[in-house]
Amino acid sequence: MNKRVVLVGAGHAHLHLLKNVASLIRLRSDVTIVAPDDFWYSGMATAMLAGLVSPDEVRVEIASLVAGTGAVFCRASMIGLDKDAREVVLDNGQRLAFDLLSLNLGSRPPPLPAQGQVVYSVKPVRSLVELRRRIEQAWQSPGSDVLRVAIVGGGVTGVEVAANLRALADLHRQRMQISIYNRSEPLKQLPHGAAAALLRHVRRSGIEVRWPVTVTMAGEGGVHFDDGTSDDCDVVISATGLVPPDLTRRLGLPTSGDGALVVDEYLRSAGDALIFAAGDCVAFDGFSLPRVGVYAVRQAPVLLANLCATLCDTPLTEFAPQRRFLSIIGLGHTSALMQRGPLWFKGPPALWLKRWIDHRFVEGYRT
Ligand SMILES: Cc1cc2nc3c(=O)[nH]c(=O)nc-3n(C[C@H](O)[C@H](O)[C@H](O)COP(=O)(O)OP(=O)(O)OC[C@H]3O[C@@H](n4cnc5c(N)ncnc54)[C@H](O)[C@@H]3O)c2cc1C
């Protein structure tokens, strides 16, 4: 009987597995991919927000990727795991039996308490697609007021979203008031010079950066702070860092402090040798990696090799994370800041490089 391989989550790591699914199927396995949605590429999410690319250019259709391969796409969300029965529980009532399971569940900002206000989070990317649609619709109504946008979180993502919203407003010749709120000094994870250059850029674009300030709630018409005061706004965006989805804590598998699934150097769960995991939803025993797509992409070939090795009962391959990675922060239509370790550069060539890398990545998965 064929082995049942179930992949949950259409993230960066599983995208590679799906492209190379023939290597699993060749080993007498039936492969099912479970995901509620297509793959949305976060690397181009802010370019989409700025109006540089369309939402469709940021999306890879899973049905097209698996068409004709023999793998099955099950459009659903996983809501639980029955470890004893070896079944994945889905939100459509289905239970999927597995011999080998791989989880690539991604991450999202922790939920921001909200009352009477829609909060757009920076992930899933579809939320940013909806945000752009809402803003463009608001601009279509005659005599629309200046849109006031509050971004909660002054890390790299919050700043990148702010700069690209400004670019969207410029593209439409509209006015937008953008404020970033941060609990502590913004952009602390960057080298000092790079952080200063980014802050200069956003301030010159008329974006207000306020810190130290703690937003406790998004209420009707504004954001509320822990000192009892509030600011008026029309749109609230949550960019308060990325954590694994709550589901990871409910699987009965070992997790780290923020809910990441603990895996060994072979990307196997520390609690079950037939359950693998990769990307933002994992942590290694004793350390975790920054939540950037680069690691999910680098883990993908190791994950594929180890699923194949487990099916054939051959030795597994170790994942050795790189210490440094290139990160490019898009700043709208003309510029970007790229950084690797202590080195950084800001200017149009950084944006050209980002566009080239991002388009090459997405095109690699289009059929
Ligand atoms: C605005 C923004 C820009 C970014 N830009 C960059 C960048 O330029 N470069 C970079 O390296 N990193 C970037 N990142 C970080 C990057 O998004 C993540 O590190 C990366 O997405 C992690 O990939 P992943 O494979 O772990 O998960 P993801 O690619 O996020 O995929 C997770 C998948 O799991 C699915 N899923 C979740 N829960 C369930 C469930 N219960 N059942 C079934 N499926 C489920 C989701 O639908 C999704 O398809 C950015 C992040 C943001 C927010």
TrEMBL record:
GO biological process, alphabetically ordered: aerobic electron transport chain
Domain FAD/NAD(P)-binding intervals: 4-299
Keyword Flavoprotein: yes
InterPro entries named in the record: FAD/NAD-bd_sf, FAD/NAD-binding_dom, NADH-Q_oxidoreductase
SUPFAM superfamilies: FAD/NAD(P)-binding domain
Keywords linked to the UniProt accession: FAD, Flavoprotein, Oxidoreductase
Molecular function in Gene Ontology: NAD(P)H dehydrogenase (quinone) activity
Family annotation (Pfam families): Pyr_redox_2
Entry keyword annotation includes RNA-binding: no
Entry cofactors: FAD
Full protein name: NADH dehydrogenase FAD-containing subunit
Organism field: Mesorhizobium tianshanense
